[in-house]
């Protein structure tokens, strides 16, 4: 797992993956602006490097929302947009609602943002054996797919063990606050997450919610290179 930290920049093919998400939660004050209107009104306030490894470079695009009354301001999403430009092929921009049941962020001082992912290169080939213990939860939605990756939106329910980010490494952005347990290859860590936090997780990373409410996540899977770059239907995992 890799978490936000400074890293030196390096050249590479840019894949801008802007994980766009609006937190429209059940029971919350309805938003008065559509996602498109809010995105058009948001003012860019700079970019911050979050982390970089051999495969991706991740930045936050910081935003400023127009002034609004408190109820409206609190209903606005923390993570606003996701734009994806794969290593080859056309780019994608996707706006999406946060998963149902997740709570809006209650943290003060949270800066609205987009998540920008530059894919530098695909990870090396990995075992084709699937670990069902790390599959995303039931109800996960595949929002976009491109050569070399895809975008999933998932809801992790409290104390549901054996669920995770899937069979590929990923940049996973949490869409709501919570207390999580993260496990990979027998190593477990527990820590709190806030809406907008982005992490690099290795393939087959398990995520368990320890809070008493669901936690939403946008999972940008970066598929590893495979021999011949062709998978049979039997080899292809659902997530």
Any overview of this molecule?
It is built from 2 helices and 13 strands. It is globular and about 50 Å long. Strand 6 and strand 7 form a beta hairpin. It has a single domain, classed as Jelly Rolls, CATH 2.60.120.10. A 5-stranded antiparallel beta sheet has the order 6-7-13-8-11, with no helix packed on it. The protein is mainly β and 239 residues long.
Radius of gyration: 17 Å
Strand proportion, as a percent range, falls in 25-35%
Question: End-to-end span in angstroms?
Answer: 19 Å
Order of helices and strands: HEEHEEEEEEEEEEE
Tally of separate helices: 2
CATH topology: Jelly Rolls
Domain unit count: 1
Outline: globular
Strand order of the largest sheet: 6-7-13-8-11
Architecture in CATH? Sandwich
CATH class: Mainly Beta
What's the story with the biggest beta sheet? 5 strands, antiparallel
Structural class: mainly beta
Overall mean pLDDT stands at 79
Percent of residues in helices comes to under 10%
Q: What is the CATH superfamily classification?
A: Jelly Rolls
How many strands?
13
Contiguous low-pLDDT stretches (5 residues minimum) are 5-31, 229-236
Comma- or semicolon-separated keywords:
239 residues, 5-stranded antiparallel sheet, Jelly Rolls, 3-stranded antiparallel sheet, mainly beta, 5% helix, single chain
């Amino acid at each position: 797992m890799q978490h936000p930290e400074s890293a030196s920049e390096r050249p590479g093919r840019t894949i801008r993956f802007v994980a766009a998400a609006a937190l429209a939660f059940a029971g919350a004050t309805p938003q008065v602006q559509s996602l498109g209107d809010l995105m058009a009104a948001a003012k860019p306030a700079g970019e911050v490097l979050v982390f970089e490894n051999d495969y991706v470079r991740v930045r936050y695009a910081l935003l400023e929302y127009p002034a609004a009354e408190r109820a409206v301001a609190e209903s606005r999403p923390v993570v606003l947009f996701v734009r994806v430009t794969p290593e080859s092929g056309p780019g994608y921009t996707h706006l999406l609602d946060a998963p149902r049941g997740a709570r809006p962020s209650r943290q003060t001082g949270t800066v609205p943002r987009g998540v920008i992912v530059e894919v530098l290169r695909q990870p090396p080939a990995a075992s084709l054996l699937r670990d069902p213990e790390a599959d995303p939860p039931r109800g996960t939605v595949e929002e976009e797919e491109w050569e070399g990756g895809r975008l999933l939106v998932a809801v992790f329910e409290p104390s549901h063990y054996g669920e995770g980010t899937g069979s590929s490494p990923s940049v996973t952005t949490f869409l709501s606050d919570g207390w999580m347990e993260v496990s990979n290859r027998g190593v477990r860590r527990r820590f709190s997450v806030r809406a907008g936090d982005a992490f690099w997780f290795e393939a087959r990373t398990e995520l368990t919610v320890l809070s008493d409410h669901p936690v939403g996540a946008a999972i940008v899977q970066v598929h590893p290179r495979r021999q011949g770059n062709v998978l049979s239907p039997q080899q292809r995992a659902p997530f």
